[in-house]
Structures are given as structure tokens and as C-alpha cells.
Amino acid sequence: MTTDEIKRILQNFVPYGDDDLENDNESYLYDLTEKLQKNNDAENAFDDIFRLLENYPEADFGSPGPLVHTLELFRGKYETRLLDSLSRKPTTLTVWMLNRIINSASSSEREMYTGVMRDLLNDPQLKVNIHEAIIDFLKFQGAS
């Protein structure tokens, strides 16, 4: 399956509800992302992955799930797009991704990424659950 085909699927994907016993997001997306990972141009789908996370912030995509695992395979290539996504619409999963980056960052990167996380608290549109998650992550990082 080409990356363009996968992008179209991601752009049109509507997550299954928790009450759908026949389908689940995680299994479906693992199958899709396994195909994406084989493509040399997989990076071209990163924005579509982040838009999916932004468009469905309450959907269960796993913990952290196939989308996050796929992005994290491309260390050094997805982080800027994550920051772009966080500036558009932070979600619980994208904030968690930022925390995961901080966990393994060098001291200078850690300081920069922690600053990004702190700055998210200034977003007047930030939902309460995401605000609380950021506070928890900052405490965990010793940066509150």
C-alpha cells in the first residue's frame, strides 16, 4: 500500500466507538501503520497522523498505540510536526508524546521541550483534562 493511499485512509478515518464490538481502532491502525512503516516516504503521512489525533482527541488509539509507536520509530523526523500539532490543538496523547521525548532528551533538549510544555498551559482553549495532564508531567519531570 502506498503512502498516498494510507494518507487518504487516515484523512477519512472515523474512529470506532467503544461500543463497536466488531472493530477496534488499535487493531485497525496497527495493520495500517505496519504498511506505512515499510514505505520510504512514510514521513509524508505524519501530518495526517497528527491531524487524526487532533480531530478525535477523545478516541481510544491505544496506550500509546500504533500511531505513537510508528511516529517514534522516526526519531529526529517527527518532533517538529509534534510541536506544530501541539500549537494547533494539544491532546492528551500528543502531550504524552512530548513527555516521552523529554524522558530521553539531552539536558539542552529537555529544557527546550519542558519550556514548550509549560507554554501550553497559557492556551486559553486548553481542556481541563489536558491542563491537568501537563501539570502532572511537569511535576514528574521536576519542572513544575
What are its keywords?
144 residues; mainly alpha; 2 domains; 8 helices; globular; Immunity protein 30 domain-containing protein
Notes on the protein architecture:
This protein has 144 residues and is mostly helical. The protein folds into two domains: 1-55 and 65-74, no CATH class; 90-144, no CATH class. It has helices at residues 3-12, 25-37, 46-55, 65-72, 79-88, 92-104, 107-120, 128-140. The mean pLDDT is 94.
Straight-line distance between termini: 44 Å
Spans of at least 5 consecutive residues whose pLDDT stays below 50 are: none
Structural class: mainly alpha
Global shape: globular
Q: How much of the residues is beta strand, in percent?
A: under 5%
Lay out the secondary structure:
Elements: H1 3-12, H2 25-37, H3 46-55, H4 65-72, H5 79-88, H6 92-104, H7 107-120, H8 128-140
Helix pairs in contact: 2-4, 3-5, 5-6, 6-7, 6-8, 7-8
